[in-house]
Amino acid sequence: MTLSNLSKASLKDWLSTFTIKKALFPVIGVLVFLALWQVGASRVDTSLGTFPGPVVVYEQWNSLIDDHQRERTKESQFYERQEKRIEARQAKDPSYVGKIRSYTGKPTFFDQIFTSLYTVLAGFGLATLIAIPVGILIGLNSSVYSALNPVIQVFKPVSPLAWLPLVTMVVSASYVSDDPMFSKSFLTSMFTVTLCCMWPTLINTAVGVAAVEKDLLNVSKVLRLGWVTHVIKIVIPSAIPLMFTGLRLSLGIAWMVLIAAEMLAQNPGLGKFVWDEFQNGSSNSLGRIMVAVLMIGFIGFVLDRLMLTVQRYVSWDKTQVLR
Amino acid sequence: MATHLDISQVSIEFPTPKGPFKALDGVNLKIAKGEFVSLIGHSGCGKSTVLNIVAGLYDATAGGVLLDGREVKGPGPERAVVFQNHSLLPWLSAYENVELAVKQVFRKTKTKKEMHDWIMHNLELVHMTHAADKRPDEISGGMKQRVGIARALAMEPSVLLMDEPFGALDALTRAHLQDSLMEIQKDLNNTVIMITHDVDEAVLLSDRIVMMTNGPAATVGEILHVDLERPRDRLSLANDPKYVDYRAQVLTFLYEKQRKVEPISSPAPSNKKTKGKVVNG
Q1: Per the record, which residues fall in region Disordered (chain B) (predicted)?
Q2: Longest Cα pair distance anywhere in chain A, in angstroms?
Q3: Is residue A247 within 8 Å of residue A19, measured between CB atoms?
Q4: Which of A57, A182, A195, B81 is the most exposed place for a label (fewest CB within 10 A)?
Q5: Domain A109-173+181-314 class, CATH top level
């Protein structure tokens, strides 16, 4: 076989295995969806105009980017003006100490994304810090498990919206400080996320810890491993696959809960953006909300993939099918 | 013959919904230092239960086990176990699996360098140095079992307990590992209790074969001294009249004196393989 033949054959292989399976079908799927969306949307009339199709959404996406850039320019101009004013006064009166006032413009779509992202990560991080140790504890000890199980089972299905008023009141009452490190709205959103998303991690960790193979437990006994070594060397590694299943579920829930909490509480973030646009009721609003919907979905997807990547890296069980 | 390990009047009952199930009744066995003893018997007769009591994983209901005159309480590395399905930690490499045991046993008595040498020495014994950095899922069943043996040997146990160590392997690999085990045994002269289903394996490896009666309430039926010169070679032994006779004696015990007639209805908790197997002789 000549070289050109070989490269032709391998190119063909590459096309048939890689392109079709990995790229072509997903592209077809998305295109069909976009077409159906465009056709379907034009038939839905609302008081704010027709339901936005992909074209409108794309336009709104661009306008949101423009808004963001305009806002940034305004902000830098605002600071420039302040500096000039202070310099001018200092020229007249050297003892004058200027005070820089911060810009109070409306947060843009992208500011809201950023706010939502760090809120969700903080809430999820706190949930993980609570859920994994507690999960390990109840997985190891069946008495602790039976003691905590009723509580877990009752709190697990509670909707974020039910927690929100309580969390808001508790945060406003207990977090009183002249120079707060975090804003109250951030803490409210974060705790609500924590309360709602820790359960899958907790339960999966407990199940993983309780399901350590009997033979491995016997190995640990024969070696007379101390409690700490036993947990670190045997229990945690064997629970890791299930722990990550829980973590991925938790992160997904955290993201969904956060958007709902932000909408209801008017806390800064993507949820507030959606609600503001809805209240705004301009002809652009539906398109902008649709941009937010897609962005929420996309970020959720990226978060899940990140978690999956971490899981792949950490998990010893390379044969496990991860999706 | 000085007694190294003394299994004395051991009985055990397991609680079941239908009341206590007596798995072992008055098992007596004295084992000398450096002796290789096999336990053989039908499925569900309680061989594994005896081993688990010696290991300290089960507590005898009556009687007890003395090791060098001291009663066995709970499991410990001086009675290392080679489990049937290797029981290596799947997230650790072969080296790290042995290391876990070595660190646990020699943490206070060996330096880092000595521990490393000792780990490599034990992997060398089972011819596994080439795969020291491989994880269990990257090596074959026979290799996993070799690492399992290395881990047990690395604990320098005063008794090595082997629970059907080669039961899950194919015949060729099994023969290979039996030869390896004899070779190691020649150098180290460990005291070994091995559980087996395989008559040839028992005759080939053992100094004594302990044949157990059928459960429930199983006990030691007969003990056969295998007086074959070491090193033993499986090929030349195949036609050796003494070997053939020993083999016949074990078979006679298993299939005439202790023939299982009734189908097994309630398997002993220790042996899950009994499930679904119908033996009608």
Answers
A1: 262-281
A2: 88
A3: no
A4: A182
A5: mainly alpha
* Greatest alpha-carbon span in chain B: 58
Please check whether residues B174 and B204 belong to one and the same domain.
Answer: yes
**Side-chain-facing half-sphere of B65: CA atoms under 13 Å:** 26
Predicted pLDDT of residue B86: 82
Residue B178 shares a structural domain with residue B64: yes
What's B234's domain CATH number? 3.40.50.300
Mutate to test the interface with B, among A215, A223, A315 (most CBs of B within 10 A): A223
Q: For B233-258, what is the mean pLDDT?
A: 88
Residue B214 lies in a domain: yes
Full residue range of the structural domain in which residue B19 is found: 3-80+157-274
Position A7 scores a pLDDT of 62
Where are chain A's structural domains? 57-106, 109-173+181-314
Count of structural domains within chain B: 2
User: Does residue A183 or residue B269 have the better pLDDT?
Assistant: A183
Same domain for B244 and B216?
yes
Pair B125, B204 in one domain: no
Q: How far is A239 from chain B (nearest CA, A)?
A: 11
Contact A218 B81 (CB under 8 A): yes
Phi-psi region of B26 (alpha: psi -120 to 50; beta: other; left: phi over 0): left
**What's the pLDDT score for residue B281?**
36
The answer, yes or no, to whether the previous bond of B216 is cis (omega within 30 of 0) is: yes
Show residues of chain B in contact with A221, CB under 8 Å: 56-57, 74-75
Q: pTM for the full model?
A: 0.79
ipTM: 0.83
User: Residues B75-123: pLDDT tens digits?
Assistant: 999 999 998 888 899 999 999 999 999 999 998 899 999 999 999 999 9
B105 and B168 share one domain: no
